[in-house]
Amino acid sequence: MLFRHKKRGSVYRLINIAVQESDMSAVAVYSDTESGLLWTRPAEEFFDGRFEVVLSRETGGNPAAREWMQ
């Protein structure tokens, strides 16, 4: 899925939802579509409204992302 950061306008591709080893919390793993740089942030922050969906065609194979999107 592609997301746009509402404040900066940058576009990112959500790669997957992962687990932070230190506290077992969910984190979003995403990449900048221009630079390819990988980022992580707590999943609850990624889905709290600061990003908006730009293109949604890739949730089928990722159950964790589907769960967070609901």
Topology of this structure?
Elements: E1 2-5, E2 11-19, E3 26-32, E4 38-42, H1 43-46, E5 51-55, H2 63-69
Antiparallel strand pairs: 1-2, 1-5, 2-3, 3-4
Please characterize this protein's 3D structure.
This protein is α+β, with helices and mostly antiparallel strands. It is 16% helix and 43% strand. It is built from two helices and five strands, in the order ββββαβα. It has helices at residues 43-46, 63-69; strands spanning 2-5, 11-19, 26-32, 38-42, 51-55. A five-stranded antiparallel β-sheet has the order 4-3-2-1-5. β2 and β3 form a beta hairpin. The two termini are 14 Å apart. 13% of the residues are buried. The mean pLDDT is 86.
Class by helix and strand content?
Answer: alpha+beta
| Residues in helix, % | 10-25%
Order of strands, main sheet, comes to 4-3-2-1-5
Strand content is: 35-45%
Characteristic key phrases:
single chain, 70 residues, alpha+beta, 5-stranded antiparallel sheet, 16% helix, 43% strand, globular
Please sum up the structure shown:
This protein has 70 residues and is α+β, with helices and mostly antiparallel strands. It is built from two helices and five strands, in the order ββββαβα.
